[in-house]
Here is the input.
Amino acid sequence: MNEFSFQLHATWVVAKKNAMVYYLKPPVFTFGLIFPFFFYLAFAAGHRAPPEALAPGIVAMALFFTASAVGPLVTPWERQARTYERLVTSPASLLAILAGDVLAGAAFGSVLVLLPLALVVLLTDANIAAVLPLAAGILIGAMAFAALGVLLAAPATEGPSQVMMLSNLVRLPLIFVSGVFVPLAEMPTWGQWLAPFSPLSYAADLIRIGFGEPGHWSPVVDTLTLAGFAAAFVFVALRLHERTRRQAR
Amino acid sequence: MNATAAIRADGLTRAFGDRLAVDAVSFDVAPGEIFGFLGPNGAGKSTTARMLTGFIPPTSGRALVNGIDVAQRTSAARRRIGVVPEEANVYADLSVWDNVMLMAELYGVDYPTRNQRARELLDRFELIPRCGQRGRELSKGLRQRLMLCMALVSGPEVLFLDEPTTGLDVASAHLIRDIVTDLNRQQGTTVFLTTHNMDEAEQLCHRVAIINQGRLAAIDTPAALRARVHARRSVEVRFAEALPRPATLVPELAELEVAMLADGFRAFTPEPGPLAQLIARRADEQHMHIESIATLAPTLEDVFLTITAKQAP
Here is the structure.
């Protein structure tokens, strides 16, 4: 096995480990779905918009919360459980470990989002008009959100609660500047200024196109930008982890 | 330095801010050697081990495993090593079997090999009946055995053990020592053992190094190190009845270092034979009944205490 194949295999093993240890638990499933559901209720209450108009937002938000739910906690949990040192002294490179974390989060988000997707298609008048942008929005969006989770896990801490605070501090505001429930063109000027800096904006845009609504950007721009966000998040996470290791005792 | 060293520390230095935790430490560990790394708390033992396994980079110097620079070719070096870090743990939510298989997969061991090795190791560590139990259900001793299985399932050429028996029950510690010895004898596995336990080091190690305040204070075989502290030879006397004050019994003892025991004392002298005869004669004159009397060679603990005391700030 050459080095590239070896690290690719290690990525798969780390993702499998994360799935077995951290993801396949009832609280994790419910956390990723309950949050978007209550956000939907909070927004829908008092609005006259039909449910199908909110379908892309529900799917985008469910994807965002599920794909980035556990990623921020994996490294702090590993540090706290004293499994981290052995993992990083294995032949798996730091990049392979982080890529495994991203892969697990993205797979979890992509699979779990099928539930709200099926519900909005079956229970509302929303229709999937373009499969490719929808699939790209879900798959590449999940990668970007999972990578954001991995980035949030990078600060050196053993305390999951500290990471959760940081995670919510970063993730929750993104909901309001990403055109999840209100199309970007209808958002206030400050929102339109901030929206391009959020990966959720591009995933929501692709999902909106998938449901047959007009997009704010072209699907190619959305896809490339999401991929760029994912790569940038992993790169910064890698640098932060390396810095932590340089300072470790 | 040995060209074919299994482990080479070449001027390894690690600074934390202004403080040098490890200061230009150099040594070689030969293939097939069990090498003990001893030192007081905070001396730099674990930091050195962490640099050798690539967990933390050295501030300067090099760590090599089988000639491979750990910092330059980290993955290649790590494929040759097994690690049981200090205070490490198993995955609490995975079964014993899954913990071992996970580690084998991370090291790229193919399915038939990892399956066979896992069975053999779990059998050897008496964990087969617990294969289906989750990590959280194991006692500390069983978890430590499992961690050794996880470190060995990749068939490492070099094994790093950081305080592997600290806090374990006697049976688990004994089993682990036996298996480490067997591994070394039968498969020629090189072992780098960080420990506080002098008996363990004396029992297992071909050579030991003592690190103190980040610097290598001594490195040699346990026997050669003991010979360096000739003055730490001693006479140990135990009495059947009331314990006399040593200097009352033998006034010459006032000049020597004497450690009191529950039923006797231990007096340190470079010439324990004549002193033992003197103590026996005086006890006889004073009608005191000696239960036992023995001349003792210095232990590794004596060596350790002598070296670290000399260098105390």
Remarks:
- The first strand of chain B starts at residue 7 and ends at 16.
- Chain B has a mean pLDDT of 90.
- The interface with chain A takes residues 16, 21, 47, 50, 53-57, 74-76, 78-79, 81, 83-85, 87-94, 98, 102-103, 105-108, 147, 150-151 of chain B (CB under 8 Å).
- The first helix of chain B runs from residue 45 to 52.
